[in-house]
Amino acid sequence: MLNKKRELLVGYLQQKGISQQSKQVLVSDIGWRGTIQDNIARIFNQVDFYGVYLGYIHPLNNQEFNTFKHAYGPYFVSDAPYFMQMLHGGATFVEMLSTSPGGSTIGYEHADKNKIVAIKEISKVEDEYIHNKYVRFFQEGVIASVAALANFTDKHALQSSEVRPYVLRLMDDLIKKPNYLFSKIFFNLTYSETFGVGEYFDMKKRSTLKKRNLVLAVISKSRRENIEEAVNKSQWKQGFWRYQDRLGIFSVASKVYYDLQNARNALAPKRRILQLLSKVGKLKKKILG
């Protein structure tokens, strides 16, 4: 079975011009660990594969001798803060902005004797609704801006290394200071994680939160734990709060609560001193009779 799948993959890639006779191949993808590049490099072990990614985080597996990777965006080798942000923050959100309506490749098959095609799995919720109603307009805007940006960089003789800090800042803002519409789209998404854990995630169900719990969580430990669990499942902390607490109810209530707690803690030493002095006074009276 595996040999058959391998044979189909090799045949498909050969149709695209990749074989053991290829000296170098450039792989471009959004990121994050470059595992697809690793797997292809194992098959074509005589070929050097160079991966260029938007973001690249620390790989989980040993790297093949014929793989080389770099990222223009967050890069774990030199951008530790951004690496952590992408890993624990908004990587899934950035993936959403990069979705396409073509579906996910789940295998390959013969269309006829001489042609091998990719088998696609399409999620109607993710691809048709989210992409067509929202994401495609964002992507069209990005594409429309390319000509102007290219003209600007050419006119001012800017190098990619000079522009990169602004790219990192933009990604940082997108993730940490999300637009409400982006957060709304994300938490109505059915997210495909078939290459990760082999399933789909209904982000709306994973982020369901009753508004009253936002206020009650300030005084209720169990509700705080429920909210923390929901935040951890959301895969995008900042987006979760932007979507669920648009008016800032929880943040305001939390501030009041912690201000009161801090005030109470500040008075605690004074209370202890007064209690101690009281005990000393009582002891003194007993001694003196």
From TrEMBL:
<protein>
    <submittedName>
        <fullName>Uncharacterized protein</fullName>
    </submittedName>
</protein>
